[in-house]
From TrEMBL:
Domain annotation Tip attachment protein J central straight fiber: ranges: 46-173
Superkingdom to which the source organism belongs: Bacteria
Protein name: Host specificity protein J
One Pfam short name: Phage_Tail_Tip
Ranges in coiled-coil conformation: none
């Protein structure tokens, strides 16, 4: 019922002078329905200016939908630039959602997902981290944690924190009910609820 259109767009261009060179290529497919369209494009551009001492190369891949006057896009850009005697490189991503899959056992296994500024990961090994705020929904424990003997655990569901040195079972347990301190496997300090002692 609307004005439909489909097209394949190809652009090839290059120019060379005594001090400059430019080469660019664009490939795109586009379908149009009235004032809306869907488009996928891949563009590559390289240029060098000897007089200015500058160069750049960009590879841009993008998909777009224009609907009800709004533009929606996702893409990736890879670039490198020479300016002021320094070279910088960049990889940029643009999308509302990101999903990363690992084809384990011939199935697409989702291991990381990003949406609305949040990152969801199944597992992560982090050498060093600076965190402004942490919300623990289950627990955080040391690799060597053995209940009542060594390591530490912060159990958000049980509202307790334990840490032990692993040698003579010296340690401390903190719960909503109080604090317990162990020395040589003996309970030596109780602060808070002392019922049962």
């Amino acid at each position: 019922s609307g004005a439909m259109k489909a097209e394949i767009i190809e652009v090839r261009n290059y120019t060379v002078t005594e001090t400059t060179a430019l080469a660019e290529k664009l490939d795109a497919v586009k379908v149009t329905a009235d004032d809306s369209f869907a488009m996928a494009q891949n563009s590559i551009r390289a240029q060098w200016d000897m007089a200015a001492g500058e160069a750049s190369v960009v590879h841009d891949m993008k998909v777009r939908i224009r609907y009800n006057g709004e533009d929606y896009s996702a893409g990736m850009v890879i670039g490198a630039e020479l300016k002021g005697g320094q070279v910088s490189t960049l990889i940029g991503f643009n999308a509302q959602q990101f999903a990363f899959y690992n084809p384990v056992k011939k199935s697409m296994d989702l291991f990381m997902y990003m949406k609305d500024g949040q990152v969801f990961m199944r597992e992560a090994f982090i050498n060093q981290a600076w965190l402004n705020s942490v919300v623990v929904t289950d627990k955080m424990e040391s690799e060597n944690y053995v209940p009542g003997k060594q390591g530490f655990i912060l159990d958000a569901k049980a509202n307790k924190f334990e840490f032990f040195d692993g040698t003579t079972t010296n340690g401390t347990g903190i719960t909503a009910g109080g604090i317990k301190v162990y020395d040589n496997n003996r309970l030596t300090v109780i602060i808070g609820d002392i019922s049962g002692y």
